[in-house]
């Protein structure tokens, strides 16, 4: 089957009703597709191979009309609109199940309150539900009738002349300067320019706007722009610093922050127990939940290789990884982020890493220079690691004046590299993920679990993802195959390729 059929928002129907009758594709991974039952919101996870088999046997039907529902596709709705549509449908569905078609306060009140209790919300007014039901019936019992009404509103043109709007916007620039012109002064300037226009164009006079019209237009700009223009860049930066990053997210994997740091601890060789030194950590933090998505600890300087290994650990489920470390803690974080935020280090600017981002479908966002709060989650995480995790361990590096004169962290080192790595993961999964965030009463684990209930994360294909994230090299194909590290590799596939392409790189 065509791979492009598995697209987010597509509605499919299972002929045998397994795992459900109709479902919407919520998210698509390399190896797995997450489906959501249209009727009850139940989540199903099926492999692409399994879906392909069912489709080939004629067990799946793609409902183009269900996906479109008229002029607007369900996938075109925002996440909030999709939630609102499904919320309304839950009330309609329960009323239909209870055989209630004539909705009155007496007949529908108990059913409405029952559904509201399940959803954990205040019950809507019965007349609102009756209106939803009427729209649902009018749309031919299709979910299109439950779309938010503002989707069908036309464009609203401004009631004042476009030339007047242009004059107001021009005069508004004076208000957002350090000279701090008053609003009354801006209004007088607008009136003066309109008067001048009317004298020059008596055949097309403009109507003078009211004080409040000018004020509303002037104050409708971006807060950051207004604040910076009227009070200066320092005031704005100070406000953003107080508000942490000034960035908000609405679900997991919407924004993931990636960075490196050298850990303040010396560790030993696993076998020889000799001093190895201070390891580097490359970590990825989910901004919405604060959960550690993945990491890589090594003695290699930050590089393309360390970044890719950290991403591989982050993007894949952690079951095998936890088993290798002989740890039982749950670590549900995995998945490819929509946006990956990094600093301006060389390893992030190479063509290789940009090509990787394009292939996995992630958008790169570079942190502005000297704007540490742009990656607030990862910076705070590194601070917690150095302050809480490493502080009591042997071999921790102390700042000058924070230890006795005879203290030498290298002499005090006692943990091997593997022991420290296991200790770190145990702390992450058993303590950090279950400690409430500073700006929330919920823990990273709770926030992740709650978000994934609404937006399930598909499992990526390990082999395909590994191939994408591994380093690449170029070789010339010749009669003996290809040569790597002074060794020749050949196969029937390479011979077929040679016949087709010739001596090519």
Describe the structure.
- The chain has helices at residues 48-56, 64-68, 79-97, 105-119, 126-138, 162-175, 183-200, 211-218, 223-231, 233-242, 304-315, 319-324, 351-360, 376-389, 409-412, 417-430, 444-454, 462-469, 492-501, and strands at residues 11-14, 22-28, 32-37, 43-47, 60-62, 256-262, 267-268, 275-277, 280-286, 292-298, 339-342, 363-366, 482-484, 487-489.
- The protein is an alpha+beta fold.
- It folds into 5 domains: 3-68, SH3 type barrels; 76-152, no CATH class; 162-242, no CATH class; 256-468, Nucleotidyltransferase, domain 5; 473-505, no CATH class.
- Strand 2 and strand 3 (32-37) form a beta hairpin.
- It is extended.
- The two termini are 32 Å apart.
- The model is unreliable at 64-71 and 240-244 (pLDDT under 50).
Based on the model shown, name its key terms.
505 residues, alpha+beta, SH3 type barrels, 5 domains, five-stranded antiparallel β-sheet, 41% helix
Architecture (CATH level 2) name of the largest domain: 2-Layer Sandwich
CATH topology of the largest domain: Nucleotidyltransferase, domain 5
Average predicted confidence as pLDDT: 81
The CATH top-level class label of the largest domain: Alpha Beta
Please state the overall shape, judged from the principal axes of the Cα atoms: extended
What is the CATH homology-level superfamily of the largest domain? Ribonuclease H-like superfamily/Ribonuclease H
The largest beta-sheet arranges its strands as 4-3-2-1-5
